[in-house]
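USER:
Before I trust my own judgement here, I would like a peer's view. Write it directly below this note and I will take it from there.

ASSISTANT:
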Amino acid sequence: MGKLDNLRCNFDDIDLANPLPEHPNPYCERRGWISLNGEWDFLINKEESIPESFDSKIVVPYAVETELSGIQKRIEKDDFLHYHKEVLLPDGWKDKYLLLHFGAVDQECAVFMNGEKLGSHRGGYLPFSFVFKNEGKLLIDVLVKDDTSSEIYPRGKQMNRNGGIWYTPTSGIWQSVYLECLNDENYIKQVDFDGDFDKKSVLITPRFNKESAPYDVVISYKGKEVAKGHSEGNPIEIDLKGSFHPWSPEEPNLYEAEIKGHDEIQSVFGIRKIEKRAINGMMIPYLNDKPILLNGLLDQGYWPESGLTPPSEKAMEFDILEMKKLGFNYLRKHIKIEPLRWYYLCDKYGMLVSQDMVSGGAPYKSFYIMVRPFIPFGINDSSYKKLGRGSEEGRAFFVEDMKNTVDHLRNIPSIVMWTMFNEGWGQFDAKKNFEILKIADKSRLIDATSGWYDKGVGDCNSKHIYFKKLKGKNDHERIFSISEFGGYAYREEGHLFSSENFGYKIFKSSKLLSESIMSLYVEQVLPLIEKEGLAILVYTQLSDVEQETNGLFTYDRQVLKVDSADMKKTNEKIYKSFYSKFVG
């Protein structure tokens, strides 16, 4: 994976001996844990069996293709990636049950402990774990295969031949690996927090590995205990009327929760309500019973030295806080699932999120994907092969992955919307799948078809407009959304990944770029807010990515290509227009 200007984000807290050292899951955290990130033995070959020796070292959790991994190689679909690590455990962990966590491994893997298989996993974007009894010596082997072109598994923006809007593949372990020590084999797999804004309460449901067990709950706010309860194993509802602090971008209030019983868990949660309501016949989003404009950016979540893996927590924090400084309140996390700490930072700092489902399917036919922006036409998305969904197994995997994504991210208050399909990439049976998603999660909005092939379902009438003047009509049934627009590009010399220059409109100076973006908002976005009730807008994009040079920041996050004061003032005008119309 070559970089034209040898780009690095240069966040100076990256310790390759112990990268991403924070606990990977703030929503289900045990005090007894150790990170397994760092150097592992590594080998790429064509053999499935565990090798006797290894020819290199890899830095986990960075993908094989990335600079920070120390490997920086492309792999073939018949390659096997072999990871090996000997783990030295704390003395107090002897004869204890341990939980081995993987944040994400792309895309098929098998895990062995001391030569015995613990289990396997398929799909490259969701976490998995294995429980086992510690009997002393720990030798971990992970075997991985990755076929980026597979029509079964999600791949998002990965492409074997990257270019245009498609990026370098991600193979192998690419999110954190860690161990937690358990008090009991009947551990808590997850704790569900279902906040009720209207009742000012929260329903807490621990999910046990084997059977329900007694537990105590203590809830605190800013370190002060505000409520507690006991259950014999059933869900418990906690009344928070005496200390109710709802979550919002302006006041990102989070409660701390401690669950104690056979297992001990620390967690955080927030309470908010997101819905759509009609004002003067126009549907708009409401957060906590108040109208809200979702004003954001497309966020691909890529970095030049580490690909899909954030190089550090500071890198994640930078993106979120810099966008808030510019006046944005919303990020559309585009076709990837981040490490949980990214979502925690959005919760902590008050950044609203729309989470895309990760796309997949067979290679897309350019006519249905690339011609559609210029020549509007409809398509029957039950004609599966047209949009790359000829594989019945692939369709079933998408549905299961979608439900698992909802389950994985269910406790995160900053996520207020799911985006199910994007621009027809692997789209199929949108009406049927929308009903499945709506049943899986009633607490969030759903953008069923962002882009080309609208089927009249979902909470948004969701447009992508790049090559024409921004326009659209409020259909008075769904929220009028322009979920992608802009994409204005400028190449900042010395901060380029590729000699290719992709964008939807090219500018020769940062001054022209900045002025044109401000004009786009003032001359085209503002009238749509005032006349048509435009309530969701997503500019493309937060940063350059590989050959795309259409970011507000360069790929290495070293240069902001727009005037920060102008961007903030423009966003203030946007909010003022919306709230004048819908609040008065």
In short: Residues 33-182 form a domain with the Jelly Rolls fold (CATH 2.60.120.260).
